[in-house]
User: Fold this.
Amino acid sequence: MSDVRKVQVGEVQLAYRVWGEEDAPPAVLLHSLGEDGEDWRGVVGRLAGTHRVYAPDQRGHGLSDWPGAYGFERWRDDAIGFLEALGLERVALIGHSLGALAALLLAAERPELVDRLVLEEVPVPLPAEPPQEVPEQPAGPQPFDWHAKAAAVAERNAPDPAWWDAPAKVTVPTLVIGGGGSSHIPQDHLALLAERIPGARLVTVEGAGHLVHEERPGEFLAAVTSFLAP
Assistant:
């Protein structure tokens, strides 16, 4: 486990981990709902061989602040603030699920901050069919704020229509990774999203499901490292 550092970003303090040589090109990893920066531990070693890798805990998760106010635009803005606070630009931005949608919105909003974009099992900003329900909070302490889950589900059911314009605004090379038919993310939605992002490439790791980087780390890394290669 890498040492955990903290940085103030607007109203929240974000915890993050960093690996790799200081002068290597930066890569920033945004985790999914309910996880934290340690979620990338199975793939970060390989990525840190070529990049300076940063893995923050997003607001409401892990060791970052749990302010009670959540939403994909807040997670996007936190990621922008994280890059600015650390002086990072032209990063390889890699997101999974919740983190992938935040990354997509970031790349559309602030393309100058991103060099390459990787979207793993991104929830496409179309209304969920059928609508999702927020499960009741389990008893006992949780590793993330349950209000974050409620906010994410609400926005998945009724996303801002403007978000569907975001893919066409992405100007950086983009790799979309799907986990195939065993994922709960409709794979035809991923194909549609990839068509809307100029020049995007879609790679499907059949049988991996939603957790591609965990279930099939070798295939995930093969796709990502070849995409990030100079």
Notes: DSSP finds eight helices and eight strands in the chain.
